[in-house]
Amino acid sequence: MLKRGFKAQCERRTIEVRKQLELTERDPLKALTLAKHLNVDVKSALEIPGVSDQDIKQLVNVDPEGWSAFTIKIKEQHLIVFNPSQSPGRLNSVIMHELSHITLGHELAGGHTTEQGLFFANHYNQDQEHEADWLGSALLLPRPALMHIRKSNWSNNAACDYYQTSLDMLVYRFRVTGVDAQLHNSQKKKI
Question: Which domains does the chain have, with CATH numbers?
Answer without folding.
Answer: 6-140 (1.10.10)
